[in-house]
Amino acid sequence: MIVIVSAKNLVKRYNGLTAVDQVSFEIERGECFCFLGPNGAGKTTTMRMIYGFSPVTEGELSVFGLSVDRDIRTIKQRIGVIPQENSLDPDLNVVQNLTIYARYFDIPRRDVENRITELLGFFQLSDKREEKIDRLSGGMKRRLILARALMNRPELLILDEPTTGLDPQARHLIWDRLKELKTQGMTMILTTHYMDEAMILSDRLVIMDHGRIVEAGIPAALVHKHGVNNLEEVFLKVVGRGLQE
Fold it and tell me: How far apart are CA 37 and CA 35, in angstroms?
């Protein structure tokens, strides 16, 4: 077992508010690890600490065996991040968005051109090379953000609600691509509000509530453990009381 991400007693505080409270977990190479929880549970905050967007308040957090406190520049060279929001440049076309992003990683020009062709084909965007961003559908934009995150050939892909707001067809296309990446050995961290997405994509998951991990395990095993029919019922059983407060 090779551990890609390790967190021990991880804490994040904002102005006296504890957003993440003594969280510990390990993510193994090649698996899709999912964070579930209601809004404000601390899942996105935890992910942002993993990719260095938000500093750790207390505890230990390492990625690829490197400290996020001391080695975040090296870590960022080896990861890809898909944020919740659309962060594409509307003034540039599809190829330009990918080309500009590649410059952050000092990828040779010839390799950039080949990589763009490869990724646009993989995400079924080859015929959109010259399109401006505002002419793309929501699903196309999300696929382009995924393509951009893969430009540097990352070892770890971090996905923050990658299919929120998309229609079923667009969601399934992205799921197919993520499953293909997983067969290639990609390690992924996922947050989502869609229980079917978590069930389909994740190998293991944790459910967070009020900054703490309240349940963890293999999705199907959790369904069996709680004697329910699906993951949504597990979720509601574990955090339902908090949702009613």
Answer: 7
Question: Bridge-partner residues for 229, per DSSP?
Answer: none
How many domains is the chain built from?
A: 2
From residue 88, give the alpha-carbon distance in Å to each of 109, 138, 144, 158, 232. Answer: 21, 12, 9, 17, 32
Per-residue pLDDT of 76-133, as tens digits, reads 999 999 998 888 999 999 999 999 999 999 899 889 999 999 999 999 999 999 999 9
Count CB atoms within 10 A of the CB of residue 65: 11
Residue 201 and residue 245 in one domain = yes
Q: For strand 79-82 and strand 58-63, is the pairing parallel, antiparallel, or unpaired?
A: unpaired
Instruction: Order across the sheet with 212-217: list the strands.
Output: 79-82, 156-160, 187-191, 32-36, 204-209, 212-217
Instruction: Give the bridge partners for 76, in sequence order.
Output: none
Place of tokens 């459910």: 207
- Paired tokens of 191: 């947050």
Last residue of a domain, one of 97, 121, 154: 154
Dihedral pair phi/psi, residue 13, rounded to 5°:
-120, 140
Number of Cβ within 10 Å of residue 117's Cβ equals 13
Q: How far apart are CA 174 and CA 211, in angstroms?
A: 29
205 and 225 share one domain: yes
